[in-house]
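Fig. S4 source data, part A: sequence.
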Amino acid sequence: QAFFCLLLCIPWGSSCPRSCQCTEQAGAKAVLCSSQHLEEIPKDIPRDAVFLKLDANSITRIPSNAFRHLSHLEELDLSRNAIEKIDRAAFKGVAAALRTLDLSSNRIRSVPKEALLALNAKLRLANNPWHCECALQEVMWEARLDPDSVQDITCHTAPREEYVGKPLLQVLDSGANFCSVRQRTTDVAMFITMFGWFAMVIAYVICYVRHNQEDTCKHVDYLRSLPSTQGHAE
C-alpha cells in the first residue's frame, strides 16, 4: 500500500481511464481505480500496466478475457468488491506475468478451478462465503495461496453441517475429502443409469416373449378351428 501511495505522487502522461489515476515509477506503471463505484472492469486500461488496483468497488463479475490485453500485469487487486461470478477464462492472457491476485472480501461461493490453477500468482481468497466442494479443495491443494490469509478461507456452506463455519484447511486436515464425495455421487448416478437401462432391456425382452407367446397361441387356436382333413373325407 505504501508503494501505491508513492506512485500516486508521480504523474503518468499516457491515456488513463476516466475514473482512475495512473502513475509511474522506475518504469512500473500503475492504474489505481480504488473506491470509484465501478460496477465493471474498465475497458480502456493501458496495455503496459504493471499494477492494477480495482479494490473497494461494486464489481460483480469477472468475464472471460477481462485482462487479456494486459500481458505485463504483475499485481491485480480485486478485493472488497461484490464479485459473485468468475468465468473460466477470466484471467486468460495474464497467467505468465501475474505475481499477486487478491480476491478477498467478495461474495464468491465457487470458482472454476481452471481459472485459478492456470496462474502462478500468489492468491488471496479469504473472507468469501465459500461453498466447500471438490473444486475449492483442488485449488487449496494445487494453487499458490497466500499463507497469511489461508486460515480465513472458511466453509460458509458444505455437504456436511459440521464443516460449516470452520476454516477449510482445518476441515481438510481432519480427513474430509470433498472430491471423494463427488466421485461417490458420480458412481451412484452411473449405477442408477446402468440399472435403468438394464431394467428397460429386461422389460423389452419380457414384452417381446409375451407378445410372441400370444401370437403363437392365436396361431394354434386358429389351426384348431380349421376343419380337419378327416372331417372332409367323411
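Fig. S4 source data, part B ends here. Helices lie at 2-8, 113-117, 134-142, 168-173, 178-225, 229-233.
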